[in-house]
Design a protein that fits this description.
Oligomer: single chain
Distance between the termini: 74 Å
CATH topology of the largest domain: Glucose Permease (Domain IIA)
Number of domains: 2
CATH architecture of the largest domain: Distorted Sandwich
Largest sheet: 8 strands, antiparallel
Shape: globular
Strand content: 25-35%
Radius of gyration: 20 Å
Helix content: 10-25%
Length: 232
């Protein structure tokens, strides 16, 4: 009897079960990885799940990955349900404050003196926010890719639509994204500094030309990297 009671007490809590339009966070998940798995944008998932800090997720947390109430993606619902905690319980809603203007998708762009370019080549395709959510930088296979600034590696894996990818969290809800890589030299969770080599550029991209595809994201939304990097 004592052994049975001890076994019952030591049993780890079960992971919650995702309902329709929900996703249960797994160990090692990031918001960007979940967005890739579900085909949604990180910004939409953060808004639908009422995440206070999209960069901090807990295993077992339940997120919404479909518009609440059938609202179309990219629009906000009148009353989005709050995210659930790691035990599958509904998190407490944030304290209400006086009405204020909605926060912009990104703050006014300004060049960051603490950020550098990820590669020395020329920009061969610019940001347009739709078909190209970043910039393409001309390169040769094997050229070095460096982190634009200090941060923590959030993702190092193959992602749908990106291929081999590294994502670096720079804090303040900013994330840099590096794709079309051959050899990745950093691991998830590793701290990196500005100018530190994180990967080699891969083989030929579209049209037979090798390139680095680079993005900057703020709260999951793509912004024009050239508005933040030093002018060339």
């Amino acid at each position: 009897m004592a052994a049975l009671m001890l076994a019952a007490c030591s049993t780890s809590p079960k992971m919650p079960v995702a309902g329709p339009g929900e996703y249960v966070v797994q160990p090692g998940d990031t918001l960007y990885r979940i967005a890739s798995k579900t085909g949604r944008s990180a910004g939409d998932i953060a808004r639908w799940s009422n995440l206070q800090d999209p960069d901090k997720l807990e295993a077992g947390q339940v997120l919404r990955v479909a518009p609440p109430g059938g609202a179309p993606a990219g629009t906000s619902s009148d009353a989005p349900p709050p995210a659930r905690g790691a035990a599958g319980e509904r998190a407490r809603p944030p304290r209400t404050r006086e009405a204020r203007e909605p926060e912009p998708a990104a703050p006014p762009a300004s060049r960051r003196s603490d950020w550098g370019w990820p590669a020395p080549g020329q920009v061969i395709a610019g940001f347009n926010g739709s078909s190209n959510k970043g910039i393409d930088i001309a390169a040769n296979p094997g050229d070095a890719v460096v982190s634009i600034g200090a941060g923590k590696v959030a993702v190092t894996e193959m992602l749908r639509g990106y291929g081999s990818v590294v994502m670096v969290d720079h804090g303040g809800s900013y994330m840099s994204v590096y794709t079309n890589l051959r050899t990745v030299m950093v691991k998830q969770g590793q701290r990196v500094e500005r100018g530190q080599k994180i990967a080699d550029i891969g083989g030929s991209g579209d049209g037979g030309k090798s390139k680095l595809h680079f993005e900057i994201r703020y709260r999951g939304n793509a912004v024009d990297p050239r508005q933040y990097l030093a002018a060339r």
